[in-house]
Design brief:
It contains eleven helices and 13 strands. It is of the alpha/beta class. Bound molecules: adenosine monophosphate.
């Protein structure tokens, strides 16, 4: 089993009430890949500029992430600048310099074409479909998107959603995509667009998952120290798809496995926010993941103590 992830690899400059991190490793594909790498081998497709550091490449390699699909182009790496308010729930994009990412055309190396699991990070829905055209019938396609594409390319996004098994978006995006304020109605409308499984992320308020058979709610893990929520959504997706890919080799993916994947995604995301950039994820161990996963069970068990 392996996962193919396509998305942004970035430098982020992040300001929060707890400090500032300048030009640190970020990007949706980076967070996803590192989180998923705890479960199965990960193949990364993205683009960086000549300024991208060897230290960052080494961080990916240290997690066993395959970088054949990470293209280096003349120019500078995508640079995103964001600022968080005191409650860390609202974020303002201060500046987005697309740089080489503006010219990103995903080229899937031959060795990646048989990846059984595919995660389409938040890129142009036309490019997301282009990726699907380059791979051999994966077992599972998961996808992210954002307000920019929902309002900018609604028809293209609809076509992509028709080919997706799991859509992971936040509550504001779910409302925008469906035109429904009520989240249950929004979920029904979005599932009718294609994805049988819909995961709606609500930041510190946790996650809702809607499938054919049921709905499932999970809290975010209550932490005393939250430094930087950047990448939590992508890290959730990495833990979620990573767990599913690992479980798929052991048998069929049913609603119980999907629920466990939600808790694993939430577990990984809870580590991500404990430090800036990928700092916490890069020194995480499998034992720490398993411990917190068990704490999640205690946290949500209402039948016993
Ligand atoms: P998240 O906090 O999960 O929404 O993801 C934050 C990451 O998304 C940051 O590391 C950014 O580098 C990256 N990012 C921000 N804006 C964009 C964009 N327009 N396209 C792709 N990636 C982006």
């Amino acid at each position: 089993m392996s996962i193919l992830v396509v998305g942004s690899v970035a430098y982020d400059t992040v300001e929060s009430p707890f400090g500032r991190a300048e030009r640190v490793l970020g990007g949706s594909a980076s967070f996803f890949a590192v989180a998923a790498s705890f479960f199965v081998p990960v193949n990364l497709v993205g683009v960086v500029g000549r300024d991208f550091g060897e230290e960052q490449m080494a961080a990916f390699r240290g997690r066993g992430i395959d970088l054949e699909g990470l293209e280096t182009m003349d120019g500078e790496t995508f640079h995103w600048r964001g600022k968080y308010s005191y409650d860390l729930n609202s974020r303002e994009t201060v500046r987005t310099d697309l740089n080489v990412f503006e010219f990103f055309k995903p080229k899937i190396p031959a060795a990646y074409r048989r990846s059984e699991h595919v995660f389409l990070g938040n890129i142009d829905p036309v490019l997301q479909r282009d990726v699907l055209d380059q791979v051999d019938r994966p077992r599972l396609v998961a996808c992210d998107t954002m307000n920019f594409w929902i309002s900018g390319k609604p028809e293209e996004l609809r076509k992509t959603l028709g080919r997706v098994d799991v859509l992971l978006i936040n509550d504001a995006e779910a409302r925008q995509l469906s035109g429904e304020w009520n989240i249950v109605k929004a979920a029904r409308a979005i599932r009718a667009m294609g994805p049988p499984t819909l995961v709606i992320k609500k930041g510190e308020h946790g996650v809702l998952m809607f499938t054919e058979g049921s709905s499932f709610a999970a809290p975010a893990y209550p932490l005393e120290e939250v430094f930087d929520p950047t990448g939590a959504g992508d890290t959730f997706a990495g833990g979620f798809v990573g767990y599913l890919a690992g479980a798929a080799s052991a048998g069929a993916v049913d609603d119980v496995v999907l629920r466990r994947a939600v808790i694993m995604g939430s577990t990984l995301a809870s580590f991500c926010v404990e430090a800036f950039s990928l700092d916490r994820l890069l020194r995480l161990t499998r034992a720490e993941i398993d411990d917190r996963y068990r704490l999640f069970r205690r946290l949500t068990d209402f039948e016993s103590l």
